[in-house]
Amino acid sequence: MRDCIDIHTHVVPESFPPYAGRNANVPWPSMAEAQACHKHVMISGKVYRTVADGCWSVPRRIEEMGAMGVGRQAISPMPELLSYWLPLDDARTMIRYLNDQIAAMIEQAPEHFVGLGAVPLQDDDAALKELHYVLKDLKFQGVEIASHVNGTSIGDARFEPFFAECERLGAAIFVHALRPAGQDRIVGPFPEQAVCFPGDIALACASMITGGIAARHPKLRIAFSHGGGGMAILLPRLVHAWKMFPKAKASLPESPEIAARRFYYDELVFEPRAIRFLLETFGENQICLGTDYPFAMGDLAPMKTLEKAGLDREMLKRIAFKNARRFLGLPAASR
Amino acid sequence: MRDCIDIHTHVVPESFPPYAGRNANVPWPSMAEAQACHKHVMISGKVYRTVADGCWSVPRRIEEMGAMGVGRQAISPMPELLSYWLPLDDARTMIRYLNDQIAAMIEQAPEHFVGLGAVPLQDDDAALKELHYVLKDLKFQGVEIASHVNGTSIGDARFEPFFAECERLGAAIFVHALRPAGQDRIVGPFPEQAVCFPGDIALACASMITGGIAARHPKLRIAFSHGGGGMAILLPRLVHAWKMFPKAKASLPESPEIAARRFYYDELVFEPRAIRFLLETFGENQICLGTDYPFAMGDLAPMKTLEKAGLDREMLKRIAFKNARRFLGLPAASR
Fold first, then answer.
1. Residue A278, helix vs strand vs coil
2. Is residue B69 exposed (0-12), middle (13-18) or buried (19+ Cβ within 10 Å)?
3. Residue A24: what pLDDT?
4. Collapsed DSSP state (helix, strand, coil) of residue A232
5. Which of A173, A228, A259, B27 could lock A265 by a disulfide, CB 3.0 to 4.6 Å apart?
6. Mean pLDDT over residues B203-219, rounded?
7. What is the pLDDT of residues B241-289, one digit of tens each?
8. Backbone phi and psi for residue A66, each to the nearest 5 degrees, phi listed first
9. C-alpha pair distances (Å), B109 with each of B12, B70, B148
10. Please, are residues A78 and A10 in contact by the beta-carbon 8 Å criterion?
11. Which residues of chain A have pLDDT under 70?
12. Rounded Cα–Cα distance for residues A256 and A281 (Å)
C-alpha cells in the first residue's frame, strides 16, 4: 500500500490571486465559500464545480490517501484550469501560479507527491519555457495536458516540437479529457465528464497515432486518462483502416497497435472486466492506478476495484506502482 | 452457415433518378462509372465513395455471402443516403426510392434478405408515414436510423413518438454512426468512419439511456452498429454517474446498465478479445453478427473472427443467428 502510486489526481488551489491582467472579460477563476470543507470554483460568475478541501489541503489529502490505500500521488491541475483559451499573458500567469501551488504542496510532503505541471500549449515558445521551468526549477516528473487545444487535437503537427522536447527531457505526459467532443449530443442531466470524456480521450490518443507523432517519438512517455476511453475498442478498427486504406498505410510506418501498446493508460474504468480488457489490449506493463481523486467521477476505492479484477500478485503490483514508476520516471526502488 | 444472419450490411442503388425537385443546391446523389464492377457515388460534384457492385447486384451479393458464410442479410441503405439534411420533399422522394430499391432486391431473393428501411427522421409525421409504409406495404423487419439527426441525438425527446410507434409495431431499429462527432479532431489520412464512428455510436447509445427513452420503452428492439463503439467502456462510467449525481439518479428509474443490456449490438470490432468483452458487458443474448458488407471498413471474414474468439458452440449460434432472429423479429425456425 505504501508503494501504490496514483497517476490521476487533481489539485485546485484554495484561492486564486485576483485578476491583475489587462484584458477584458477574461474567465479568470476564483474560489467562493461553500458548505464545510468545500469551496465553489467560480468562473465567469457561475459555479463551475464545488470541490472538497482534498483539492488543496495536504493533511486532508494524506488522510484520504491512507483510506484509499494510495502511498503517492501524481498531482496535476483540475483540467478546466489549464487555460488554453485565455489570452497568453493571463494563461502564463495562471499556469505559473498553479505550478507553484503544486510545488508548495509537494514541499509539504515530498514522499507523498510528485508533480505534473501545466503548460500554456496555445503558444509553442511559452509552453517550452514553462516545460523547462516545471522540470528543472520545480523538479516535477512531467506535465498534464488536455486532449486538445481549443479544438485542435494534440496529435496535430503544431505540437510536435513540444512532444519532441518532452521526449528529449524525459518528461512524463499525462493527457486528460477536457471540453469534450460530442458535448452537444448529451441528452438528460448527466454531466459532460460522465458521458463524453471516454470518447474525447480516445480521439486524442488516436490523433497521436494517426498523425505520426507517436511513431516519430517512440521514447515519449505518455499516459491517457480514463483508461484511454473508447481507445481499447477503437484500436482494432484503426489497425483495420491502416491495412485497408493505402494513404493511411503510407503515412504510418508501424501498425497503430505498436504505438498504442507503448502508451500508458490509467485504469479508471470502474469495472473489473473493463480493467482486464485494458490489460489484454494494451499490455500488462502499460496500465497504471489512476483515480481522479478527489472528484465525484473518481474511484475512491481503487484497491477494491483492482481486487475484484482477479489479478495475480505480480499483475497487481504492476498496476499499483511498477508501471507508474516507469511512466513517471521514478527510480524502481525510490523508497 | 445457411442459418447465419448478418444484421449490418448496406445497399447503394445502381442508379438514382435525376433530381426532379424544386429546391436549389440540393446534394442529390448520382452514380458515375468507375473501374470494373464499381461505381462512384457522386454528391455535390465530388466522389463521396467508390463502391462495388455488391451494393446493388443480388447475384454478386449472394455469391459473396456464400464466401463469407452468411445465409441471410438485413439490408439497409448506406448511411450517407439517409437524407436527414435534405429539404423534406426531396428527402421523402429519395427515401421512398431507397426503400423500393431494397424491396426489389428482397423480391429477387426473399430467402436471403430482410429489409431495414429508411425514414425521414427530420420530420415526425413523415417519419411515421414511411415507417408504416416499410413495415406494412414492404413487409420490412424494421428501419435503419443514424446516431443523430442533424446534430440532435436520437435520445432527444422529439424522437420519442417515433420510438413509441416502433415499439408498438414491433419494428427492429438498427442505429448506425453517421457524420460523426469529433470529425474535426482527426489528424492524418484516416477516414472519419475509421476514427470517429465508435465514439459517435456510443453517444447515440448513451443518449437513448440518459434521456430516458430506453427506460420508458422497454420493449423496443434496437441494435447499435460497430459493437456500440466505446459504449462497452463508457457504460460503467454512466452507472457511476447515475449513482453519484442526484439529478441523474432522479431522472432515471433504472441503472443505465439495465437498458444497455436490453439493447442489441453487432460484433463489428475486429478483435476476438473485443467480442468477448462485448459479450461480458452486454450479455450473450445481445450480440449479433454484423459485417458492414460490402464496404472497406467491413469484416468480410466474420466467421473466422468469431472462431478466433474461442466461443462454445451454443454461444456461436447465438451470435451467428439466434440473437439476430430475436432482434429482427424473425421466427425461430424461419427456414
1. helix
2. middle
3. 95
4. helix
5. A228
6. 98
7. 999 999 999 999 999 999 999 999 999 999 999 999 999 999 999 999 9
8. -60, -45
9. 17, 14, 32
10. yes
11. 1, 333-335
12. 12
pTM of the model: 0.97
Q: Which candidate from B151, B185, B229 shows the least CB-CB separation from A233?
A: B229
Three cell numbers written together for B40: 462512384
Query: Which residue intervals of chain A are DSSP H helices?
Result: 58-68, 88-108, 124-132, 160-169, 192-195, 197-210, 213-216, 231-244, 246-251, 256-260, 272-282, 302-308, 313-317, 323-328
What value of ipTM does the predicted structure carry?
0.97
Judging contacts by C-beta atoms under 8 Å, the chain B residues touching residue A195 are 203, 206, 210, 234, 238, 241
In this predicted structure, the answer to whether residue B335 has a pLDDT above a threshold of 70 is no
Distance, in Å, from the CA atom of A96 to the CA atom of A174, rounded to the nearest integer, reads 18
**H or E segment and range at residue B252:** none
In 3D, which of B167, B152, B8 has the Cα closest to residue B75?
Answer: B8
Cell of A173: 505526459
State whether residue B197 sits within 8 Å of chain A by CB. yes
Task: Report how far residue B232's alpha carbon sits from residue B220's, in angstroms, rounded to the nearest whole number.
Answer: 20
Query: How close B304 comes to chain A (CA, Å)?
Result: 15
Contacts of B165 (CB under 8 A, 6+ apart): B128, B131, B171
List of domains in chain B = 5-11+55-328 (3.20.20.140)
What's the rounded Cα separation, in Å, for the pair A39 and A31? 6
Q: Which of residues 55-114 of A touch B (CB under 8 A)?
A: none
Strands (E), chain B: 5-11, 30-33, 38-43, 46-52, 72-77, 113-117, 142-146, 148-149, 152-153, 172-176, 221-224, 264-266, 287-288
- The type of residue at A129 is K
Distance of alpha carbon A77 from alpha carbon B236, whole angstroms:
25
Measure CB to CB from residue A233 to each of B187, B203, B274 and give the nearest one.
B274
The three cell numbers of residue B232 are 462497452
Closest partner residue to A210 (CB to CB) among B148, B195, B226 is B195
| pLDDT tens by residue, B155-181 | 999 999 999 999 999 999 999 999 999
The residue assigned the cell 433504472 is B254
Q: What is the DSSP string of B169-232?
A: HT-EEEEE--S-TTGGG--SS--HHHHTHHHHHHHHHHHHHHTSHHHH-TT-EEEESGGGTTHH
Chain B neighbors of A194, CB-CB under 8 A? 237-238, 240-241, 245, 248
The pLDDT assigned to A1 comes to: 64
Q: Taking the CB of residue B290, how many other CB atoms lie within 10 A of it?
A: 30
Calculate the alpha carbon distances from A280 to A26, A94, A289, B271 in Å: 45, 40, 16, 11
pLDDT, position A332:
79
Q: Any chain B CB within 8 A of the CB of A249?
A: no
| Chain A closest-CA separation from residue B302 CA (Å) | 13
